[in-house]
């Protein structure tokens, strides 16, 4: 086995009756891992980009013409027969009626639910977990806004669909931060599916029953093994920090600042071109941080972001 086989893989998404759904297709007889379920796609041919390969493969395999596909994450996997690098795309829009021309079946599954079919290709397991992440990450800012006002803002945002929260607030006094975190967690638990991570305080995360931990870039670079938490994320600013997050097997990262912020208006930020370059081959979801707003979410995803992270402008 020599070299790496480049593969374009499609996460087709639609709004089902019970929520957002993705498509899995079954590999046909005669192929490696026949009978396994996978995200459709295929090899990148000579002279093709991964995006071009995606369009061609979905035409050949499913009979559809892609109208909108955003680059997402890249994962490498070593099978007995091949070392593959899979570039996953979120496919949001297409023309034509889906038909499994090269598969023996296909099935839609709600995001967050265990597929009712098996086995699923081993390389796709982490993709299912990454799909569960919401597209907006809110960083709390009680130190600036005041605890009562921030709790009110959080309650309203949860009511309108916010489902991923980082309890930041390291500038608060220890007891005030503890009290705020408990009250924020109580609000979050009233909305099933909400994920809450605590910034850089393992003991507090355990005490309030948070879903995980968020590492600062400084702590990330000092960490040798993944912390013992269900979800672990980190803040990153450069390629070295991103590589460390990937090596530790973290669930997602915040990368930035992408644009100038209110705190540092004279700092130009990474810019979208550098953001896309840095995140292009990462094996984990990346949230764009710095100068973000809800209005930038769709554009951020065209640049490879899973979504956006905001300190001030979430609501």
UniProtKB/TrEMBL annotation:
Keywords: DNA damage, DNA repair, DNA replication, Hydrolase, Magnesium, Metal-binding, Mutator protein. Its cofactor is Mg(2+). SUPFAM superfamilies: Nudix, Thiamin phosphate synthase. It catalyses: 8-oxo-dGTP + H2O = 8-oxo-dGMP + diphosphate + H(+); 8-oxo-GTP + H2O = 8-oxo-GMP + diphosphate + H(+). Transmembrane segments: none annotated. Its EC number is 3.6.1.55. It is an enzyme of class 3 (hydrolase). Belongs to the Nudix hydrolase family. This is 8-oxo-dGTP diphosphatase. It comes from Propionivibrio dicarboxylicus.
């Amino acid at each position: 086995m020599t070299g790496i086989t480049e593969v374009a893989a499609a996460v087709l998404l639609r709004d089902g009756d019970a929520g957002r759904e993705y498509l899995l297709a079954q590999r046909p007889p005669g192929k490696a891992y026949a009978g396994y379920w996978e995200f459709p796609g295929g090899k990148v041919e000579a002279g093709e980009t991964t995006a071009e390969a995606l369009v061609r493969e979905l035409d050949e395999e499913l009979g559809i013409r892609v109208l909108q596909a955003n680059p997402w994450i890249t994962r490498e996997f070593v099978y007995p027969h091949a070392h593959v690098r899979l570039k996953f795309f979120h496919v949001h829009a297409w023309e034509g009626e889906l038909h499994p021309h090269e598969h023996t079946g296909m099935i839609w599954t709600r995001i967050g639910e265990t597929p009712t079919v098996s086995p699923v290709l081993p390389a796709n397991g982490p993709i299912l977990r990454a799909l569960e992440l919401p597209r907006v990450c809110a960083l709390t800012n009680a130190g600036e806004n005041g605890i009562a006002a921030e709790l009110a803002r959080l309650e309203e945002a949860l009511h309108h669909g916010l489902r991923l929260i980082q309890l930041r607030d390291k500038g608060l006094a220890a007891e005030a931060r503890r009290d705020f975190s408990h009250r924020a967690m109580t609000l979050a638990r009233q909305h099933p599916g909400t994920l809450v991570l605590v910034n850089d305080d393992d003991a507090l995360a355990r005490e309030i029953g948070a879903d995980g931990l968020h590492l600062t870039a400084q702590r990330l670079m000092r960490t040798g093994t993944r912390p013992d938490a269900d979800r672990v994320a980190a803040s990153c600013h450069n390629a070295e920090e991103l590589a460390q997050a990937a090596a530790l097997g973290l669930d997602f990262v915040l990368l930035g600042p992408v644009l100038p912020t209110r705190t540092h208006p004279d700092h130009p930020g990474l810019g979208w071109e550098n953001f896309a370059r840095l995140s292009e081959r990462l094996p984990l979801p990346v949230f764009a941080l710095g100068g973000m707003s809800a209005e930038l979410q769709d554009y951020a995803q065209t640049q490879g972001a899973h979504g956006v992270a905001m300190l001030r402008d979430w609501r």
